[in-house]
């Protein structure tokens, strides 16, 4: 039991190595993430993407609050990776991730729901225009990058 707990602590510590906090002053707050992750740890890793689909890691935010607000620069492609993990004595560790490409538009806001229910992880992305109704955006994986 102690060995399993020690191993879990090492794994968690190792996973956080190399992470840096996402800068708070990169852009006006235009993205709100609402996690519903009972019993699961969540993190969002944000990468800048250039026209050749090369990425640069900018930072991460833990999804451990009822709402997380951040600013992702408008008019520029970003690659968002949601990591979910949990650990239990009976099932061991389990990790899953979902990703999407997002190019925020100036003046628009974005809401993201990251949830875990009944062993199912889900990420829903909505775009809220300055006027009019919000619309759900499909998640686009890395292969959707136009230069690929």
Which outline best applies? globular
Counting DSSP E segments of at least 2 residues, the number of strands comes to: 9
Could you tell me the CATH topology label: Immunoglobulin-like
Mean pLDDT: 85
Examine the secondary-structure arrangement and name the CATH architecture. Sandwich
The strands making up the biggest β-sheet line up spatially as 4-1-7-8-9
Give the number of domains.
1
Fraction in helix? 10-25%
How large is the radius of gyration?
A: 16 Å
Are there runs of 5+ residues with pLDDT below 50, and where?
A: 1-16
For the largest beta-sheet, the strand count, sense and barrel status come to:
5 strands, mixed
Instruction: Kindly name the structural category.
Output: mainly beta
Oligomer: single chain
Order of helices and strands: HEEEEEEEEE
How many separate helices?
Answer: 1
Estimated share of beta-strand residues: over 45%
Distance between the termini: 47 Å
CATH class: Mainly Beta
